[in-house]
Amino acid sequence: MSFLSATLDRVKPSPTIAVTTKAQELKAAGRDVIGLGAGEPDFDTPENIKAAGIAAIEAGKTKYTAVDGIPELKKAICVKFKRDNGLSYEPAQVTVGTGGKQVLYNAFMATLNAGDEVVIPAPYWVSYPDMVLLAGGEPVFVEAPLETGFKITAEQLEAAITPKTKWFLFNSPSNPTGAGYSWDELKALTDVLLRHPHVWVLTDDMYEHLAYDDFKFCTPAQVEPQLIDRTLTMNGVSKAYAMTGWRIGYAAGPKALIAAIRKVQSQSTSNPCTISQWAAIEALEGTQDFIVPNNEMFVRRRDLVVSMLNDAEGIICPKPEGAFYVYPNIAGCIGKTSAAGTLISDDETFATALLEETGIAVVFGAAFGLSPNFRVSYATSDEALKEACTRIQTFCASLR
């Protein structure tokens, strides 16, 4: 009898974490490595938010709290949903977790039975399918290729839904592609969901405020209010507020679902970090003035990376609507051999050769469910991005 749970055989370690770890190891060994794998802003947490955390420590707010968040934070979240999304929730409909990842995990653990299906557009964030599998469910992938702007159609969603479908998992702007659904594109999907009342919607809105150019963010329950009673709207402070390490995610939905999520959390982590909760209140209620200049910086970096990667031989890099990722296609590189003699048979061998031969760390597309591609996070300095893209251009030019 194996000591380890058979459930672990259904999942794999996070590829994004693995790439970041490998880059750190090479850098520690003295290699000149530029990591483009981490999904976090290089900006520091704004001063007012840090001050709120310090004030919480000094005020002795360091004890256990309610399992799924202090009342003050839940109230701030309700105000945020009303202000930004036109969604009306009360505190009893809100859960706060240790990052958005825990909220998603709790929701699946609280709702999925063996054989329940979760429809997931691909490419997807690497953790989505494995969380579904850990909870006993079955991920059902709907491919959104380059040709459709990495977005699925209403017809594809309709075809993917079966009597076993429990959730439709939606993410816009997307990790890994940065693709964002317009109001009309999302309305086409919600029209499908209205025809299938047994399907719930779990929307990951973590990149809501990282929306560029003329793109306007919208969320499913906002586009189709009839879905609000079967929608869990998840968000957090990690990305827009540069608070990845503070570990605060939150969601709002029907009371019965929130109560079930609370039960799961009560027997796992209990409350999120108290200090981080008080800092998150300041993030939501305090000045939002830094978001616009930060986004302007992200737009400049996005345009730099898109331009330089499109100049690389064999690469096609579309310009995304939001987040801080690009997802270049490398079909033109497949089948070639690198200067060091590596056959580029797929996007994983491309990423491995790129790291070993040039010191550039990216995440290969198969990890996100769509190949042949790789993901670049441009949440780093202009100088690092210019150097990284130059090395990628050189690497691609050397392929034979």
Short descriptors:
400 residues; alpha/beta; 12% strand; 2 domains; Aminotransferase_I/II_large; Aspartate Aminotransferase, domain 2; transferase; PyrdxlP-dep_Trfase; pyridoxal phosphate; pyridoxal phosphate binding; seven-stranded mixed beta sheet
Short description:
The protein has 400 residues and is of the alpha/beta class.
Structure write-up:
This protein is of the alpha/beta class and 400 residues long. The chain has 2 domains: 6-44 and 290-394, Aspartate Aminotransferase, domain 1 (Alpha-Beta Complex), CATH 3.90.1150; 64-285, 3-Layer(aba) Sandwich (Aspartate Aminotransferase, domain 2). The protein has helices spanning 15-28, 47-58, 71-85, 100-111, 127-134, 154-160, 183-194, 220-223, 255-266, 274-285, 291-310, 347-358, 382-398, and strands at residues 34-35, 94-97, 117-122, 138-143, 165-171, 200-204, 231-236, 249-252, 325-326, 360-361, 363-364, 374-377. The protein is globular, with a radius of gyration of 21 Å. InterPro entries: Aminotransferase_I/II_large, AspAT/PAT-like, NHTrfase_class1_PyrdxlP-BS, PyrdxlP-dep_Trfase, PyrdxlP-dep_Trfase_major, PyrdxlP-dep_Trfase_small. Homodimer.
